[in-house]
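Possible race condition, two jobs.
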Amino acid sequence: MPYDTCRYLAAGPRVGIRHFTLGDGAEFTARTRQSKDLHHPWLFPPDSAEAYAQYAGRLIEDPSKAGFLVCDLGDGGIAGFININNIVEGGFLSGALGYGAFAHAAGRGLMREGLGLVVRYAFGPMRLHRLEINVQPGNAASIALARACGFRLEGFSPRMLHVDGAWRDHQRWAITAETVPSG
C-alpha cells in the first residue's frame, strides 16, 4: 500500500519531499552509516544522534537553509536528502544545493525525481530565482544528476571548498526559474 502522500510538500510518482525533523535521526544516521562507501570522498552527512541533532537543527532553525528528505512513497523510507544552503533574498533570490542518495536507493532514479520536486518547490513556494550546485569534477554521479535535472555548467572554481582535508576544485552548475524543465 502506498505511503500517505499528504505529509509531503510535493510528491511525484515514486517519491515525496518533506522537511527534516529531529525525529528522523535514527533512520537518517543508520542510512548514513550504511552509505559511507557511496558518500566518500564527496559527502560526510551526520552518522550519530548528536551530529544529526546539530545538523537538522541548523536546517530547521536557520532561515538561510532549507533541508528536504526524499522519501520513497512505497514505504515512506528516506532515500536521500537535498539541502538548499546560503539562501539569499532581495535582488539575488538564490541558493546553493547539496544532496546525497543513500546506498539502498542509489541508481534507482529516486534522487532525480526528488531533485526535480525540490527545484520546482524552490521556484514556486520559496520564490527563489536561481539554484546552484557546486560539484567536484570527479563526482560523475552528482554531475549526471545535475545535468539530468536541467542544470547547466557555468564554470570552474579552483580550490573552492574544503572537503575531506583539502581545498577541492569544483564545477558550478546552475538553473534559473526560466530554464527549469517542465514535468
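Job #2 (started ~2 s after job #1):
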Amino acid sequence: MDDRQRYDRATAALEPPFAILDLAAMRANAAELVRRAAGKPIRVASKSVRCRPVLERVLATDGFRGIMAFTLPEALWLSGHGFTDILVAYPTADRHALAALAGDPAAAGQVTVTVDSTAHLDFIEAAVASARSRAEIRVCMDLDAGYVAFGGRFRAGALRSPIREPDQAADLAAAIAKRPGFRLVGLLAYEAQIAGVGDAPQANPAYARAVRLMQSRSARELVVRRGRIVNAVRQITDLEFVNGGGTGSIEGTVREKAITEVAAGSGLFHPRLFDFYRRFSGHPAALFALPVVRRPNPDTVTVLGGGYLASGPAVPSRLPQPYLPVGLRYAPEEGAGEVQTPLLGQAAQDLRIGDRVWFRHAKAGELCERFDALHLVEGDTLVESAPTYRGEGKTFL
C-alpha cells in the first residue's frame, strides 16, 4: 500500500480540508535529529510544531529537552500546562505578559526572555513596575550570528541582534548583572544563513556553489567569534546554556565547544523547504488534504482552498507542494488560490470530484495556523486528533 492509499484509508471518515501528521515519519525524523546532535540536547522550536500534544510526544523522546517559544504569551500558556525550561527566542514588547511573568514565581522560574540591548531591560522594568511582587526575570542575550564580508558590503543571515563582538556582549552582560531583578542565564546565536538556507537548490548549480562557499566561510568565522563571545560573557556570569543552530546546521553547530544545546523543530515535520539540503534527508510527515471540486478540462482539476503561502520572500518556493498524486502543478496565472486552486498535469486525468490531493506546506508550524487539529496517523489508522494552537483558541502571531 503506497502513502496515498494509507492516508486516504486512515482519514476516510474525515471531510477535507484537514491536516495529518504521519507518526512513523516524525519518529524517524526525530531519531535523525538526535543522531546529528551527537549527544547534545535539542531544544524544540515550538513555532515549527504549534500543537501541544505533539510537543509532549517529542519532549518524551530521548535527546530533546526544553522548548524554544516564539512569544511570551505562548510561553506563559505552555508553562501553565506543565511545560518547563522555556526560552522565548524573540524579544517581547508585551507589557501585560511581562507583568504576568513577573507576578508568577513558578512561571518566572521556567521561562527565559530574550534581550539584545539595555532598551529591552528598560522596557521590562517599566512593564513590571506596578506589579505587587516581582520575581526575578531570567534573560538570554541574543547575538548576531550573520556572516559579513567585503568590509560590510555583503551580509548573509537574519537581521536580529546588534550584539556582534565580544566586547559588546561583555558590556551588555555587565549591564544586566548590575540590574536588580534580572539574571543572565543564556546566550542565543542562530546562524540562519546556514541552518535555514538549503545548499542544494533545484536547477541552479551556480547559486548552489555560491551558497556552499558562503556557508563554509560563515561557519569558520562563526566558530571563532561565537567562542570568543561566550568566553567574554562567562568572565562576568555563569551561563546555564549557549544555544545555536537549527535543523539545517545541527551536525556542524554541535562541534563547537561553546555550544551546549541546539534548536530544531522544522526537521520533525520535514516541510518542502528542507528538501534542498545535501547534509541530511527526511521524511515528509505533515501534510494537508484538499478535495477536488471541479474538472475544468481533462488535464485540470480544481481543489477547494490552497492559498497557504509560507512566510519569507514572495517566491515560488513559498507555495505548498502538490504532493500526492505525483505529477500535479499549479496553473501559472493562478497559483495557490484563496478559495480554489487549479492543478494541471497528467495525474489530473484520474482524479474525480471528491478525491483528495495531498499537499506539503513549504514551512512547518505555519500549517497549523490553517487547521484546528493534526490528525495523527499510524500506518493506515487514525489514532488521535490532536488540537493545534488554533484548535485550542490560541493565535499568538
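The CA atoms of residues 42 and 262 lie 5 Å apart.
Logs attached separately.
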